[in-house]
Amino acid sequence: MFRLCAILLTAIMIPSATTAVAAPPATGPAPFRQGPCDGFNRDYFSNPECDTLMMADPAPPVAPLAVDHGAVASYTYMHITGTEPLVVYNAPNGTPLYEIAPGFNFVTPRSTQGEWVEINAGEWANSAYLEAVLPSMFTGVLIQAEPARAFGWFLRTMYTSERPGGPAIFRPENHVQRYQVTYVYASTTVDDVDWYLVGPGQWIEQWYVGLAQRTVRPLEASGRWLAVDLYEQTLVAYENDTMVFATLVSSGLPGTSTAEGTFQVWGQRLNGPMTGAEGRSDYYRLENVPYALYFDGDTSLHGTYWHDGFGYRRSHGCVNLSITDAHWLYTWLDIDGWVHVYYSQPY
Description:
Strand content: 35-45%
CATH superfamily of the largest domain: L,D-transpeptidase catalytic domain-like
Largest sheet: 7 strands, mixed
Helix content: under 10%
Number of helices: 3
CATH class of the largest domain: Mainly Beta
Shape: globular
Distance between the termini: 7 Å
């Protein structure tokens, strides 16, 4: 099951009691089928041994990357609002210089004077058509030891279910927070929907979790390299075969999907403008996009200040990262490092 920006809403129903029965053959993907948590389904969804395992190993061995406040606050960001072209002047109440066409447009102002904002040197716009934007404070995690199983992040704040295919249970122990890190102990499929076991009595639909999973190192890659999973919308950084960092990303939307393949980083840019789709409804103009690592033509990994929707496809083909994550990767990955882009499951 795949994810776009929109999230399906599950119906809220009153749970009914269910009695555990003998376990049939397991149906979940192999990475989750192990030990006492093996073989769960709609009717057989828990046992004491699995609960004991989850309580003994409740979280992956990771530490959150500290927010890089200096990088995040290096610019002020503003969104150009409205459906008409924005007129840019040479001074407050001055002479028009040019217009910015309607679209997905952001600027990084230098100064203000009353109701006027200097968006670039000698270029002014009326603040009535500008809206301040706060960049995401999300960060990925540093992996301190080999995780025992797949782990990931919840993609929304919600309540989990006590069984796969069941309704949400509104009690504190079933409440999870968006961007909270979790292990996934088991998986099964109910009515064509994959469900993940994330804790004792806690099942959740697959599309609400972005998984970071180990993948095989490409033959070309050695030393430091990155794996971008387009199905899960996650990135894992490796030192040879050792996982060292993982995070959520946002890759290309349908029609502008990020290409699969193994690519060598060919260029870096500390910050700079990005624009595209001129004359189309999806036209965009972005100033001072930070920490770009180019790996497939003009496709790059880069910092993103204009959204906080990581874990879902949102871009025109680039791989969006939080500013903190992008800065870390920018300084960590060698200029000739490798980026492996793949689907862990069919999309």
